[in-house]
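HOLO CASE FILE
Compound: GLP
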Amino acid sequence: MLIWQNKNQLKHLLMRVRIFDDYDSLSQATASEVINLVKEKPHAVICLPSGSTPLGTCQWIVKNAQQQETDFSKCVFIGLDEWVGIGKENPGSCSYFFYHHFFDPLKIPEQQIFLFDAFAKNWSEECKKMDKTIAAKGGIDLMIVGIGMNGHIGFNEPGTSFRLLSHVTDLDETTKSVGQKYFPQKTHLSKGITLGLGHLMKANKAILIANGKNKAQIIHKALKEPVSEDMPASIMRKHSNGFFYVDKEAALLI
Ligand code: GLP
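Model generated. Tokens follow.
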């Protein structure tokens, strides 16, 4: 159980932490954030994560978008991260997730999609290209992120500067082993390419989503440990419009 030394800190934080009964209601609420934004601002720039957590959100968006005929044809989608050297055809890649669960069912035009190239010849150019794209589109309106078991956001591993924009990074051992869950067979994972926490801080709104008991400990740390580059997800507490959306299980220790 958390021991809060400062009641104001607790009050302030709880306003930014929404606890949902279950994964489905968490996913539905996150999906509504995306759908409402697109309705208000058809040219919105939206950054999405891949992984187990956002699957329900994508499914709700697809379902609701079809029912409510939300027009996604003008908004821009930015992929949060990608495994270096893992192609779009590999079911464990982030690109595969985005196309399979989101872009294809919603028929998002290709020119509205911006993902990292896992096989870029020049990483520095690839990162600059993404940073320039985001700037040229007017910045990110809504950035949804997950949280890794070591507190990472995207592939911003513990120790990464809060100021970085797009970059390539060596993956932490935890990320390499937990990441195996996305792949049908044992896969060599070594580096990742990711948006930086500088992007997160500049986004108009940021939502970190987490569900399940296995995320309870890391959510506790992200909320309770000092805001520090050693705990990347703690940066969410510095965002003026940043929220934690967690289900009851992930909120077990707060
Ligand atoms: C992965 C990705 C992140 C993702 C996080 C949590 O390694 N790099 O972008 O948000 O870890 O993933 P999951 O939702 O599968 O737990």
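CASE NOTES: DSSP finds eight helices and ten strands in the chain. The radius of gyration is 17 Å.
CLOSED: yes
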